[in-house]
Amino acid sequence: MKIGEIIKLLNAEVHYLHNNQSDAEIKSAAACDLLSDILARVHVPDLLLTGLNNAQAIRTCSVFGIKAVVIVRGRPIDQKLIDLAHEEEITLLSTKDSLFIASGKLFSKGIEDAFEPCE
Amino acid sequence: METKFDKTVEILFELKVADVMRKDIISIGPSDMMSQLKKTLQERRISGLPVVKGSNLVGVISIEDLIRWLSDGDADQRVEEVMSKNPQCLYADQPLIHAVKKFDQFGFGRFPVLDRESGKLVGIITRGVIINGTLKKLEKEYKEEEIRQYRASHFFGDISADQKKVTLKFKISGKDFDNAGKASTTMKKNLKRMGIQPDIIQRAAIASYEAEMNVVIYTNGGVMQYTITEDKLSLNVTDSGPGIDDIEKAMQPGYTTSESWVKELGFGAGMGLPNIKKCSDKMDLQSEVGKGTTLKIEILIGEDHEVK
Amino acid sequence: MKLNEIIKSCGLELKNSAEDMDCDVTGGYSSDLLSDVMANAKDGNVWITLQTHNNIVAVAVLRNLAGIILVNGREPEESTLAKAKEEGIAVMSTPLSTFEIVGKLYGLGIRG
């Protein structure tokens, strides 16, 4: 699925679109508020859905190699976060959808989770 | 936050052998005669040559070989009978730091450079071209003053000794959540520029980020120091307290002492230390309650595609 | 949709039964932040989380939730199970991740 289609599907606000690439392909996603759970994974998803709107949402993507993040639940996005997304080259979107609804919508369009239990 | 970076060494990681090597290769054929080699070395004022058949490297021959041959007083001979076969080589896409290491290791004056794909000879590298290439890059990026310093110093010797490492140091402030993670992302960018393998970078970044978050969340602040040599990345994290009561317990997945405000930040699920361990090749954690904690980890970089 | 049907359709492992396993699930809410669940989950929602601490039971009771689904194959802590028994809160677990189990629930027609 292209990032542009995801923006439409989630009626998302675009805060930073890396390289202006609305046709960047997203195949997998992870939904999580506990970021250390993401960091303990084996596979890197293309997209992170999270309710966190602090700097760690961006830095976790940067550290783990995730290309884009969607902040859910209509959490406000402040300018500092947008600047950081720019600096770290992470696409930053936000949606009013809950984590449940946003995940459900993407899953129904064929987005997968690359999750593999470690234990 | 402060960053200390040895520019010269940084450049040695950044530049590839192909960026500085001599491409105008003077060579000799295996069936050429030693008398001809003597002439070529004298005329060109060089101390050694690759022996090439077609565009394939078959050996190297040096002025030492010539002297030995002369002193033996033998009749004229073909180069292939005197040359060293299976010479030590470098690949064009290797970072320059590998070349420096090779010069140290073997004490030779030059190494042939091969294209990794085709195995063909594409250049020659000497100590001289490494120094020139590095200085040229320094000139482009840094001020005259600094360059003069580098020129004045025993440039090559310094790098060959124990400066063949990059040190990055960050001061981490406790409870500074806006900047939490900045050291780790900065370090990750530097590793990328140095051309370190992506899977190594990711493991290093994750371990570092978890460690950094621990310092920010649980302590009053500390220092993270990265040391990168050609075979490993070491991370040393020290803080000044409060220390960990029971390390064994702290290492268990899911064990946490964090309060709910930490969880609201997305951390504190008791995954940090186990995850650091998973990402590291070596981990050592020492702590004293009331004094502080020292975490040392190592991640092996390992160059497994070294030319044999 | 009834809680029982969801357990069957999604292959959830039941860790603790609620008093009423036939109750209607009004929707789903997924979050790992307790304060967020307190603020935004709705009555009768099933809650998807990777938190296993016994505080999750208190939140489920306070918000009148239909049950808690633990993801990534996580086991509830002992104290969590004990509290769930005491309060009659359904606790289930799945080896799937949040994204996948939510996707399945969404596919069954569960909404927010």
Task: Walk me through the structure.
The complex is a heterotrimer of chains A (119), B (308) and C (112). With 119 residues, chain A is α/β, with parallel strands linked by helices. Chain A has helices spanning 3-9, 35-39, 55-64, 79-88, 99-108; strands at 13-16, 29-31, 47-50, 68-71, 91-94. In chain A, helix 2 (35-39) links the parallel strand 2 (29-31) and strand 3. In chain A, helix 3 (55-64) packs parallel to helix 4 (79-88). The longest helix of chain A is centred in the middle third of the chain and has 10 residues, at 55-64. The termini of chain A are far apart. In chain A, 57% of the residues are buried. Chain B has 2 domains: 8-131, CBS-domain, CATH 3.10.580; 166-300, Histidine kinase-like ATPase, C-terminal domain (Heat Shock Protein 90), CATH 3.30.565.10. Chain B has 14 helices and 10 strands. In chain B, strand 1 and strand 2 (56-62) form a beta hairpin. Residues 1-5, 145-163 and 304-308 of chain B have low confidence and may be disordered. Chain C has 112 residues and is of the alpha/beta class. In chain C, strands 1-5-4-3-2 form a 5-stranded mixed beta sheet, with helices on both faces. The longest helix of chain C is centred in the C-terminal third of the chain and has 10 residues, at 78-87. The mean pLDDT of chain C is 93. Chains in contact: A-B, A-C, B-C.
Q: Keyphrases for this structure?
A:
A: 119 residues; alpha/beta; Udp-n-acetylmuramoylalanyl-d-glutamate--2,6- Diaminopimelate Ligase, Chain: A, domain 1; 5-stranded mixed beta sheet; 35% helix; 16% strand; B: 308 residues; alpha+beta; CBS-domain; 2 domains; 5-stranded antiparallel beta sheet; 3-stranded mixed beta sheet; 14 helices; 21% strand; elongated; disordered N terminus
Number of domains of chain A: 1
- Classify the oligomer: heterotrimer
Q: Quick one: CATH superfamily of chain C?
A: HprK N-terminal domain-like
Number of strands of chain A: 5
Helix/strand-derived category of chain C reads alpha/beta
Q: What is the count of helical runs of chain A?
A: 5
End-to-end separation of chain A in angstroms reads: 30 Å
The CATH first-level class of chain C comes to Alpha Beta
Main sheet overview of chain C: 5 strands, mixed
User: Which stretches of chain C are poorly predicted, pLDDT < 50 over at least 5 residues?
Assistant: none
User: Largest interface, by Cβ-Cβ below 8 angstroms: which chains and how many residues each?
Assistant: A-C, 27 and 29 residues
Query: Portion of residues in helices of chain A?
Result: 25-40%
Helix content of chain C: 25-40%
Task: Specify the CATH homologous superfamily of chain A.
Answer: HprK N-terminal domain-like
- Element-by-element helix/strand order of chain A: HEEHEHEHEH
- The rounded Rg of chain C comes to 12 Å
